[in-house]
Design a protein that fits this description.
Pfam families: DHC_N1, DHC_N2. By secondary structure, the protein is mainly alpha-helical. Helix content is 66%, strand content 3%. The chain is built from 47 helices and twelve strands. The strands form five sheets. It has a four-stranded mixed β-sheet with strand order 8-7-10-9. Strands 1-2 form a two-stranded antiparallel sheet. The longest helix is centred in the last third of the chain and has 44 residues, at 1012-1055. The radius of gyration is 64 Å and the shape is flat.
């Protein structure tokens, strides 16, 4: 046995347990189980907790039942004892074998008692061996043969046959484990005790001796094979490790060495040189490469991310797989070279498909994935395709449609959940075939678009742009079939473009022959212009040649295209020859021009205007520009003279630029100076003219030491220019100060003040403006003093005084604008054609209690000290006073700017125009006031006096009636109820009429009269008149009813006293009360109808009597009284049917009478009676003959809620009808204003302010 295996000992006999047992501490009650547990714990180092876990499983207690149960008695027969012993032995054997298997080793179990077997003749164990001992050893050999047979069988290809995808690492592990197991078997077979057993078999001529020798030979042979295979597989494993150690992008170059190692294994291994073994190894190697591809690409997410970023990785993976397949072919072809020492090469005769079946499927799927991704990337470019031409927009929209549909179709892959590289999953290929069918439609549609786009192109440039935009898409089969024939047409167009270039060349040569020069760009020198023209002609066709050369197409091999190339070379040669001719002509005169013009003075002067000009001749400038172009070309040889001039170009440009700047500044001083400024500049100009004499005479361009002179001259001119510019800036600042004051009028509209002229903070506004003007005046004086310092002027000289007068005029003109701004603002806003709305507001109020007159605030009468005219005059005064807050620029001048402006004709005309506007508006306001005087009687006449006359004569007597009546007086004629109603309706109508009056009136669109207070006061007066008549009737009703109530109360109180016998006075009093009741009866009988009529009339006038009055007139008083009496009966009676029936009838009657009372409302119309019929399901006719009995038959007590809802609805509808009627009256008199749109002349409807206000009031009140 192997050294690492511990020799097991025989189990002790069942002794009922002992204190030395390792299982005793487990608390096992069954002695039989304790024996088994102790054996396992001692011999196999089993942990107690694992035994407990094992034993607690009921399925594992089968041993307890079938093996240990016979141990119950110690009186066993021999047969039983043998059987038990055999069962225990089998158990130990199974346990030992399983334990070895878990360690990857095969245990060759020796029968119990043979562990220390020593064969000594016929003796062993101190006794003579018998036949039974031989049989036990032969059985052992049979058991060993079976176990070793399983080990010797080749199982390396099993994972592949089972559909798994093992790698060479699995093969390596298999042979490593196999070698270890076989070595363990071998060590057991050569054990000294086993040798003794074999010796015993041989001595007994056992047939199993030969079998053991054969078994031994197979084990040795298999062990040698395993060790040999393991050696070669380790070399292959090292090669695989080198592949895995590098980045995946670089592992392709390691595929050759990897496959070369496989070839070496084939050539030198004694056991891997068969097709069966090598194909399994190669299949595993394919799985290894596939695994690396999977790890690198993560196929499950291959289509999930950015395809453009993923496609390079897919290309790398495809390249690695291709290199692996190529390495196989290379190694297969080079196998003979791997055999040494004259060995006969053994080729790989197996079919590659046997090895690469799965690899090829994955590879093809990877190629398919790359195709899909490449297609996706190309189609994604369609989103940015911009087609030109007439049909460009239409075709572009079609392209976008294809792009969007393609993006949606590609979701077959982006939304998928399968592994696209898994050959066992058909989903990817199914989607691919489905996608290809969709792509066929896309390709056909795109081909149509490309062809249409081609024919819509305007020339070669747009055609090449189309080809570039479509790119690889043009190589798709269906698109290529439609577009392929367009390439010859492009070649033809190239010929035409060359024709155009040759025509341009011929025209230019003809012009040159006629004029002696070529047409060049403006301001270009002759030679450089000619060369640039030639370059442009060359570039015109060269760009097309370069673009076509980038296209890979068979048309480039045709004679037609070769002819294009030849003509292009001819054109190139002609243009080069033209450049050479012009260069030679330039050389013939360049030296002379350089020498002559470099010797010229720097400046020349116009004797008439005294203006200066830089004397840098254009020919000299042309030399420098042509030199620059020749330097860029770097083809021609340049002479020394122009080379020397060009070497000074930076210095010459420096001279020229500064002299140019100086001359421009000098000329600007001369031309821009005002007459008042020239005397101020004269001293400085004189010094400058003296300095510039050298530049006009002896300072030339060829001198090297004139920079100091130029810089000094420029500094003098710049200094004067700077000072003059500052004085002009100061003047502009003065103008700007005055202009800023004239931007905003002194008084403006304020949104917070209803967009009227803002006068609530007038004092503060004027104060702030005047403070700004004072500050501006201080700044203006400082600017004038600054100009004096800049000119270094004598402030007492006549020249300076003239300059000050000029500045003073600027300030005066500025004040005209300042004052004109404010007055013009008032003028514009009082002009009906320009104003945006009311500018001023006048309040109209009614004073009834004291003065009893209408009052305007402010008063519109001229001459009023606090009136509207005075307000306007004060505003103009504040505006004109602005001119008094800047002191005159003339020193010692007493006349202010305000005084000067009093005679300004422009401002005078503005004042008169403002006065005219105000007069026109106020006259209309006066007319408005006169119109309102028609209501003056309402607040002038005495109401109580008029009421007394009405009660006497039913009207106010006229003077004629009084005169006719004479001393007898006018006979009294009290008013009837109808006359009361007529008077109430008169004032109600008058109230409605006044309500329709526009409370706010705008005159001339800018003067608003707010008569809301007046209107409210007038309505209040009218309401008082109406209420006076209503109150009289109310008092009449309540007085009559109160008097009747008092009579009933006092009479009932008197009659309640029963006179006793002999009480004559009491009897007389009772008789008197009865007589009073009899006398009052007739009056009372006719009293209620007039009262009811009065109440109904008041109700139509919107007056509801108090609840007390209705209670006094209520019909159900008796019912309620009876109900109260019933409730006062004995409680025992309440269960009687008579009591319940009477109580129910009374309740129904009270409810019905209450409903009838509600239906008496004057708001009830025929439609409401119809609704009541629908609710009660009873049809009746409502007319003057309908009485209470008819209404009670409707059983209204069942429909109290319906009646209440109908009456409430009727009241609300009446209120709405009244409101709508008022709206109709109001809007019938309103008009919209029509105007025309300035641009379209469409008639527009505009609403005046009063219409807007009425609309807002009606909306709020509805």
């Amino acid at each position: 046995m192997a050294e690492e295996e511990k020799e097991p000992v025989a189990a002790p006999p069942p002794t009922g347990g002992s204190s030395s047992s390792l299982a005793a501490q487990l608390g096992i009650e069954d002695v039989r189980v304790e024996i088994v547990a102790d054996y396992l714990l001692r011999n196999y180092k089993l942990k107690p907790d694992r035994w407990v876990k094992f034993y607690n499983n009921p399925e594992n207690r089968v041993v307890d039942k079938h093996v240990a149960e016979p141990m119950i008695t110690s009186l066993w027969p021999q047969v039983v004892t043998d059987h038990v012993q055999q069962q225990i032995t089998n158990l130990k054997t199974r346990v030992d074998i399983v334990s070895s298997k878990t360690k990857g080793q095969t245990l060759l179990r020796v029968p119990d008692g043979f562990e220390d077997f020593e064969y000594q003749g016929e003796l062993a164990f101190g006794r003579k061996l018998d036949l039974q001992d031989l049989h036990r050893l032969e059985a052992m050999i049979v058991m060993w043969s079976n176990e070793i047979k399983d080990v010797l069988e080749y199982h390396c290809a099993d994972p592949i046959l089972e559909g798994k995808n093992p790698t060479p690492q699995v093969e390596l592990k298999y042979w490593r484990d196999r070698a270890k197991d076989l070595d363990h078997i071998y060590q057991q077979l050569i054990d000294k005790h086993v040798k003794q057993m074999v010796k015993f078999l041989k001595a007994k001529n056992s047939v199993y001796y030969v079998g053991f020798k054969q078994l031994y030979s197979k084990v040795v042979e298999s062990l040698l094979e395993a060790n040999d295979n393991l050696m070669y597989l380790k070399a292959l494993s090292a090669a695989m490790d080198s592949v895995e150690a590098v980045d995946f992008e670089d592992c392709g170059k390691h595929m050759g060495p990897l496959m070369h190692t496989v070839g070496l294994v084939w050539a030198h291994s004694k056991h891997y040189n068969t097709p069966e073994r090598i194909t399994v190894l190669l299949q595993m190697l394919c799985n290894f490469v596939i695994g690396m591809v999977d790890n690198f690409l993560r196929p499950d997410e291959m289509f999930k991310g950015d395809i453009a970023e993923t496609i390079p990785a897919v290309k790398v993976a495809e390249n690695v797989m291709s290199q692996f397949r190529k390495a196989f072919d290379t190694t297969r072809a080079g196998l003979p070279k791997l055999y040494k020492n004259g060995q006969e090469p053994v080729p790989w005769t197996f079919e590659p498909d046997l090895v690469f079946s799965r690899f090829t499927k994955v590879h093809e799927r990877l190629k398919t994935a790359f195709y899909l991704m490449d297609t996706y990337v190309n189609f994604m470019k369609l989103e940015k395709v911009e087609l030109g031409g007439i049909k460009g927009n239409m075709l572009g929209e079609q392209v976008i449609d294809i792009f969007q549909e393609f993006d949606e179709a590609f979701k077959l892959f982006t939304d998928s959940k399968y592994n696209p590289l898994d050959p066992s999953d058909p989903g990817f290929l199914q989607n691919f075939h489905r996608f290809n069918r969709i792509m066929t439609d896309f390709d056909r549609r795109l081909a149509t678009i490309v062809v249409k786009g081609y024919y819509d192109c305007t020339g070669l440039e747009s055609i090449y742009k189309l080809i570039d935009m479509m790119g690889p898409l043009l190589e798709r089969q269906l698109i290529m079939e439609d577009f392929d024939d367009k390439y010859p047409e492009v070649v033809t167009m190239m010929h035409k473009e060359l024709d155009t270039c040759f025509e341009l060349y011929d025209e230019q040569m003809a012009y040159k022959k006629e004029t002696g020069k070529m047409r060049v760009h403006k301001n270009m020198p002759p030679m450089a212009g000619a060369m640039i023209w030639a370059r442009e002609v060359y570039s015109r066709v060269n760009v097309y040649m370069e673009q076509f050369n980038r296209i890979e197409h068979p048309v480039k091999k045709t004679e037609e295209y070769k002819h294009v190339f030849t003509r292009f070379e001819d054109l190139k040669h002609l243009l080069a020859q033209n450049d050479l001719v012009y260069y030679n002509n330039w050389l013939s005169s360049v030296d002379e021009n350089c020498n002559f013009y470099m010797a010229q003075p720097l400046l020349i002067e116009d004797k008439t205007t005294k203006l200066l000009e830089v004397n840098f001749h254009p020919k000299l400038m042309a030399v420098l520009r042509e030199m620059k172009y020749l330097k860029l070309r770097n083809k021609e040889v340049i002479p020394e003279v122009p080379e020397a001039v060009f070497a000074k170009r930076e210095l010459l440009f420096k001279y020229y630029a500064n002299m140019k700047l100086m001359s421009e500044l000098y000329n600007r001083l001369i031309t821009d100076a005002l007459d008042v400024e020239k005397p101020m500049m004269a001293p400085a100009l004189e010094r400058i003219n003296k300095q510039l004499q050298g530049a006009l005479t002896n300072k030339t361009w060829s001198m090297d030491d004139i920079w100091g002179y130029i810089a000094e001259s420029l500094a003098m001119v710049q200094d004067l220019t700077k000072r003059v510019r500052e004085t002009k800036d100061n003047i502009e600042r003065i103008r700007g100060i005055m202009a800023a004051l004239a931007v905003t009028p002194l008084f403006e509209r304020k949104e917070k003040q209803d967009n009227l002229l803002g006068l609530t903070d007038r004092t503060e506004t004027v104060k702030r403006r005047n403070a700004d003007i004072v500050a501006s005046g201080v700044e203006i004086h400082e600017l004038m003093e600054a100009n004096a310092a800049l000119y270094d002027a004598n402030v007492k000289s006549p020249e300076w005084m003239a300059y000050v007068n000029y500045l003073d005029g600027i300030v005066e003109a500025g004040f005209v604008s300042v004052i004109g701004c404010s007055i013009r603002y008032l003028l514009d806003n009082t002009n009906p054609d320009k104003t945006v709305g009311p500018l001023f507001e006048i309040i109209l109020e009614l004073h009834e209690s004291q003065a009893r007159k209408m009052t305007f605030i402010p008063d519109i009468e001229p001459g009023s000290q606090e009136g509207f005219w005075a307000l306007l005059d004060s505003l103009v005064v504040d505006i004109e006073a602005q001119a008094s807050f800047i002191h005159r620029l003339k020193s010692g001048e007493a006349v202010t700017y305000q005084t000067l402006l009093e005679t300004n004709e422009e401002l005078i005309e503005m004042r008169h125009a403002l006065t005219d506007s105000v007069e026109q508006a106020t006259s209309e306001v006066v007319q408005y006031k006169e119109a309102l005087n028609t209501y003056s009687g309402l607040w002038v006449e005495d109401r109580q006096e008029n009421m007394q006359l009405f009660l006497l004569y039913n009207h106010k007597p006229t003077a004629e009636e009084i005169s006719l009546a004479g001393e007898a007086g006018i006979p009294e004629n009290p008013p009837t109820l109808a006359q009361f109603k007529a008077m109430i309706e008169l004032y109600e109508k008058l109230y409605e009429e006044i309500e329709q009056l526009q409370a706010i009136q705008v005159f001339n669109k800018w003067l608003r009269v707010d008569a809301r207070a007046f209107k409210q006061g007038l309505l209040s007066v009218v309401k008082k008149w109406s209420l006076m008549f209503k109150q009289h009737l109310i008092d009449r009703v309540t007085g009559g009813l109160d008097d009747l109530q008092d009579f009933i109360t006092s009479t009932s109180k008197g009659l309640a006293k029963d006179p006793v016998e002999g009480d004559y006075i009491g009897l007389v009093n009772v008789m008197g009360l009865l007589n009073a009741v009899r006398d009052r009866q007739a009056e009372t009988d006719v009293m209620f109808e007039p009262l009811k009529q009065t109440i109904d009339m008041l109700k139509t006038c919107g007056v509801d009597m108090s609840e007390k009055v209705y209670n006094q007139l209520e019909m159900d008083v008796d019912c309620k009284k009876l109900s109260k009496e019933i409730r006062g009966l004995d409680k025992d009676m309440r269960s009687w049917d008579l009591f319940l029936g009477l109580e129910s009838a009374l309740k129904n009657m009270i409810t019905s009478l209450r409903a009838v009372g509600e239906l008496q409302n004057s708001a009830i119309r025929d439609r409401h009676w119809k609704e009541l019929m629908d609710a009660t399901k009873v049809t009746f006719t409502m007319d003057e003959n309908t009485n209470l009995k008819d209404l009670l038959q409707l059983e209204l007590h069942r429909f109290e809620e319906d009646v209440h809802g109908i009456v409430d609805k009727a009241v609300k509808e009446t209120s709405m009808e009244k409101t709508l009627k008022e709206f109709g009256i109001t809007w019938a008199n309103l008009e919209f204003v029509h105007s025309q749109h300035k641009r379209t002349s469409i008639t527009l409807i505009n609403a005046e302010e009063d219409v807007i206000e009425t609309l807002e009031d009606n909306q709020a009140g509805f």
